[in-house]
Amino acid sequence: MVNSNAQPGDRDSLNGLGQWDDFIEEQVYPEPHARAREDYRNYTAPPRDGIREFYRQNHHFQTYDLVQQKRREFLGLHRRKMSVLESLNFLNTLIDDSDPDIELDQLQHLLQTAEAIRADGHEEWFVLTGLLHDLGKVLCLFGEPQWAVTGDTFPVGCQFSDRIVYSELFDQNPDAADSRYNHPLGVYEAGCGLRNVLLSWGHDEYCYHVFKNHLPEAGLCMIRYHSFYAWHREGEYDYLCDDHDREMLTWVQQFNEYDLYSKLPEPPDWKQLQPYYMGLIEKHFPAMLDF
Ligand SMILES: [Fe+2]
Ligand SMILES: [Fe+2]
Do the Cβ atoms of 63 and 156 come closer than 8 Å? Predict the structure, then answer.
């Protein structure tokens, strides 16, 4: 069924989501515990042209001003009220209209992540974090282009690290030539804490705000920083962190293992698992959430 709130262009913005996830997993971070591939940033012949184009737009448009504008636009959470189940279905329903494989990727990815966390005996909040961490991709359904929803995130308002994916494409970003922003600290103070740093706009920050009163701090940091690879994978931007961030970093890194590498031999069956997850959701979340 196609959701009546679907917007023209949604199909395009969602089509690449699975493509993006596959790229990250297969091409950038193929080995657990390994750094990003050295050839990543000099990638002259990417396997999928769409990925470089995605980053051309992302690195061009994600400026300090843009992020502030998106935060004003979306963090009021006044678009719709949905239960957690509705939001999962909302993300999924529209994808029915584009590509069945992408649908499978999205729901299966969330379930695989959650089930892998559960199989390792972690607490309920951690399992739920796995199930919900990409729900912010509903931004695509609100008409947002893919470059403003997915992909690695990075701080704006200060210098772009050359350990960020496709960092050479920041040449096109006006902030790279702006003296207010193009030095290591930019608008920030050393050790100010990541909570005071604006990251490029995407599904992580949005999802964090949807769930910020309903999960423990470690789960919230997993959601908020899971695409911030320059930090949790590459070790950059420590100078902006405080001790709390460094404590949370271990959680974010632990989560990343499940996010990237949880491919169970038997694909989880949503119908069979739904009663378990509905029980968890009812126990931990209010009936309706603001999106
Ligand atoms: Fe994600
Ligand atoms: Fe994910």
Answer: yes
Domain span holding position 230: 10-290
> Does residue 134 sit within a domain?
yes
Q: How far is the CA of 189 from the centre of ligand 2 (A)?
A: 31
What is the total count of domains within the chain?
1
Q: How far is the CA of 177 from the centre of ligand 2 (A)?
A: 32
**Helix/strand number for the chain, H first, E second:** 11, 2
- Tell me: the pLDDT tens digits for 211-253? 999 999 999 999 999 999 999 999 999 999 999 999 999 999 9
What is the DSSP track for 62-127? --HHHHHHHHHHHTT--S-EE-HHHHHHHHHHHHTTT-HHHHHHHHHHHHHHHHHHHHTT--HHHH
- Nearest ligand to the CA atom of 139: 1
Q: Is the dihedral of CA 45, 169, 199, 147 positive or negative?
A: negative
Give the predicted TM-score (pTM) of the model: 0.86
- Residue 5 placed within a domain: no
Indicate whether 1 belongs to any domain.
Answer: no
* In-domain check, residue 3: no
